[in-house]
Amino acid sequence: MNKLRQSTAIILLLSALIFVYGCSNNSGTNTPTQSPGNEAPAATDTTDKPGATELKYALGQAVSTLDPHLSVGGSNGAVILNIFEGLYAFNSKLEPVPMLAESTDVSEDGKTYTFHLRQGIKFHNGKEMKGEDVAASLNRWKDKAPRAKNSFGDSSFEVVNDYTVALKLTAPQNDTLAQLSHVLNFAAIMPKEVVDSAAPEGITEYIGTGPYKFVEWKKDQYIDVEKFADYQSQGSEPDGFSGKKIPQIEKLRFSLVTDTSTRFNSFLTGEYNFVDIDLDNLPQVEGQPGIEIIKSISSDYNLVYNKKSPVFSILTNRQAVNTALKVDDILLGTVSTPELFELNSSYMFKNNTTWYSDAGSDQYNLNNPEKAKELLKQSGYDGREIVFLTTKDLGGKFYNATLVVQAQLENIGFKTRVDTYDYATMLTKRADAGVWDIYVGGFTVPTTPSQLLYFNPTYGFADDAKLAELLRASTSAITPEAVKAANDALQQYAWEYLAVSKIGDTFTYYAIRDELQGLILYAGYPNLGNVKVLKS
Amino acid sequence: MVIYILRRLLALVPVVLIMSIVVFLIIYLIPGDPARVMLGDGADESTIQELRQQMGLNYPLLEQYGRWIGNAVQGDLGRSFFLQQPVSTAIREHLAPTLSLALFAQFIAVLIAIPLGVRAAVNRGGLADKTLNAYSLLGISVPGFLLSLFFVLVFAVRLKWFPVSGYAPLHEGLGSFLKFMFLPALSIGIVMSSLTARIVKASMLEVLHEGFVKTALSKGLRQNTIIYKHVLRNALIPILTVVGGSFGTLVAGAAVIETIFNIPGLGQMLVHAVERRDYAVIQGMVLFIAIVYVAVNLAVDLLYAVVDPRIRLQ
After folding, report:
1. For A367-380, what is each residue's pLDDT tens digit?
2. Has residue B51 been placed in a domain?
3. CB count, 10 Å around CB of B188?
4. Which CATH number do you get for residue B189?
5. Same-domain status, B273 and B218
6. With 70 as the cut, is the pLDDT of residue A46 above it?
7. Is residue B67 located within the same domain as residue B127?
8. Closest in B157, B166, B275 to A424, CB measured
9. CB–CB of A422 and B32 under 8 A?
């Protein structure tokens, strides 16, 4: 018996030693720096160390498609935005800047856009980019991309000559250039042949004009790209996805590493120079020499009401919910630290110079349970159970946010239930108006009002003539003053109609090693066009 | 013998048929739509319906099943819209990492379990026996994923002896293959060995009391010869059963370990397929797993006869 105790003790001691060794860390006390705007700060070390020729970039989610027109973000965008380019690209203030276009003439009535293309731009297959390629690409884009379909469904892009393409609109659309720059359903330019030979599930050849050329895609493992030797860089300073792109590496591999801790551990060993980090892992890299922590804005959280549900088709009930919300608590429950969220009543990020507006902000973050209870009494809420639809996928943040909202609503007398599904099921359920009442989720890169999914019927079933009219007015205004006035009116009304209740904006931490220079982050999407890897 | 094998293979047909029907029904009855996943958050109903039509998802269930099984018997498991390749190709590509991991892990498990189990049985109550008790208790109670995370932390992140994750095929060199495979195989191997070692011990103990052991001893045979040549061989049947069972599980894909070590194996592929409702891959994989289990069981049964010639396969 004694021997048994001895051997057990030895094994326990050994495991404890390994455990302690594994868990110990020597973190410092530096605090993370917030990057101005959306950009990662340029690293300061510019000594003449020889550069490495290869870079590995870790992707957290499987790439589902490399078809830019169909892609809706996540890891897809990280790869696509470095292979393909559009006529325009966003800078850090979400302003469209010419990329493949030289300039654009807009007719006085705002209905005709004439794009003058840059000359001598080569596709990765060696062919020169001409008007027919641009028109073919953009016509496919506006037919296929849900976000573009709403605005450009009835219009078409026409070839004027080899270097000019015209867009004829049925009504003015002032965010045309912004939509051409948008990173989701990206309006990429590809050769006409690629467009013509596209399969229903997407294009089969990945040929763009970007700084990196597609080499190989090993599904669910990695995507290899290499520097495009004939890349014709734009002249202006790099900003967001706009401007100069002069990569200083030869080969770039996007590796799929779905597990967060594996990704982080691989960063620790130096396999990757850049990684997104969870709050739990922050102490391990904070204050380490040669590692900088940055935070970049990632998504805005909204509480979406099902406007067809028996409870929330009634405005007073939506008002009751909105009056009860204490958004600080919801955001804290979502991202776990005040460092990673910002209160913002606008549907747009604060750095969005054109579309940010504080109209309607008096309806934001009311935190008034007593008034909310009164509103519920007024509406005659009968104690019917309301269903929250959520998912624990995508890092579990939607679920966390939902639980805090649930507690706040129970507090004012709502009877609630949370239905949790995997992401795929959640998508299907959400399209069914009969099975849910409230959905709380993060939205990526809101850029212009026409891109706000929840203002149209496909998402939460908004069905309001005035909202639709104000939305049209905001995107058809022509002068900057008129745009501002129309946008303010829209956001003011949106807070009255309550298609959603805005909760706030969230950020993500990233760790970056000094060896990696020139990386620009735009809402979590990397512009790798100017990266350089110093040998450590 | 040949007739036996043929009969066993024939018995595979109803198993696979029933499984395929059950799986087909389950995956079509659970909510979630591949077209919706593919098109993402903002897609409108008409686009989704159009893609569903193109993917063949709008046909009646029975017709879809008939079509699939009809092709499957001809060796065509269908095509994955997400992977944009035939399912059989996808399985083939993901099989190598999984198979190498399974073999390596099994090797480690046997390497630990046999000597430990044998020693524990022979020297009952001795140090080896107590170590086995503690070891198997630890191995059974600590889940594999936790063990792998510790190994990664200690041997990859701290000591930097091994890479954190990844996979290098064998044809790129034995060195790099082993470097990537060692930690995942060890994690699985330890967990597996703790169960196997107990079976080895129990089975050995049973045989050790048989009369022929006494005869061998009185004949003056060396102890090691008795133990490893006679006793172990007679104790092998239950051990083979356990090893075979766990090997089958491994070939079906060790999804968690594959995810932690980022090994592009069948387990990861199946998890991805379920997440995005890649029906063709799920069906193909289930069919494949069924075949693997039946094949492993068959192999184990055949090995019984090799180990113990008294067993006749009929």
Report:
1. 999 999 999 999 99
2. yes
3. 26
4. 1.10.3720.10
5. yes
6. no
7. no
8. B275
9. yes
Chain A residues with beta carbon closer than 8 angstroms to that of B47: 144, 146, 149
At B290 the pLDDT is 83
Contact B90 A425 (CB under 8 A): no
Closest-approach residue (CA) in chain B for A455: B42
Interface check A218 vs B, CB under 8 A? yes
ipTM score for this prediction: 0.81
Contacts of A221 in chain B (CB under 8 A): 264
Instruction: Give me the residue from A147, A218, A428 closest to B32, CB to CB.
Output: A428
Cβ contact A431–B45 (<8 Å): yes
Which residue in the set B41, B166, B276 is minimally distant from A453, CB to CB?
Answer: B41
Both B67 and B163 in one domain: the answer is: no
> How many angstroms separate the CA of residue B160 from the nearest CA in chain A?
7
Residue A138's pLDDT is what?
A: 97
Smallest Cβ distance to B262: which of A22, A257, A268?
A: A257
Nearest 5°: phi and psi at A106? -115, 130
Domain contains B312: no
Which chain B positions have a beta carbon within 8 Å of A431's beta carbon? 36, 45
Assess if residue B204 is contained within a domain.
yes
Cβ-defined contact of A7 to B131 (cutoff 8 Å): yes
Q: Which of B185, B196, B182, B192 is nearest to B116 (CA)?
A: B196
Cβ contacts below 8 Å, chain A against chain B, sum to 158
Q: Can you give the residue range of the structural domain that contains B266?
A: 89-307
Residue A17: its pLDDT value, please?
A: 52
Tell me, yes or no, whether B314 lies in a domain: no
- R_g of chain A computed on alpha carbons: 25
Which positions 290-309 of A are in contact with B (Cβ < 8 Å)? none
| C-alpha triplet A384, A389, A394: angle, nearest 5° | 160
| B160/A269 CB distance under 8 A | yes
Contact check, Cβ <8 Å, A64/B37: yes
Specify whether B126 is located in the same domain as B248.
yes
Question: Is some CB atom of chain B closer than 8 A to the CB atom of A184?
Answer: yes
Record: contact A429-B31, CB cut-off 8 A:
yes
Q: Which of B79, B112, B136 is the last residue of a domain?
A: B79
Instruction: For residue A142, give the nearest of A97, A188, A102, A99 by alpha carbon.
Output: A188
Residue A29: per-residue pLDDT = 37
Question: Is B127 found in the same domain as B201?
Answer: yes
Say what the pLDDT of residue B286 is.
Answer: 85
Residue A105 reports pLDDT greater than 90:
yes
Cβ-based neighbour number of residue A50 at 10 Å: 7
pLDDT at B306: 84
The verdict on B161 and B15 lying in the same domain is: no
Set of chain A residues whose Cβ sits within 8 Å of the Cβ of B42: 72, 146-147, 184-185, 453, 458-459
Architecture of domain A297-508: Roll (3.10)
Fold of A51-290+514-534: D-Maltodextrin-Binding Protein; domain 2 (3.40.190)
Could you tell me the residue ranges of all domains in chain A? 51-290+514-534, 297-508
Q: Positive or negative CA dihedral for A343, A349, A352, A356? A: negative
**In a shared domain, residues B189 and B61:** no
Count of domains observed in chain B: 2
Hey, are the CB atoms on A11 and B138 less than 8 Å from each other? yes
Domain end call among B12, B47, B79: B79
Do B53 and B134 fall into the same domain?
Answer: no
For chain B, residues with pLDDT lower than 50 are none
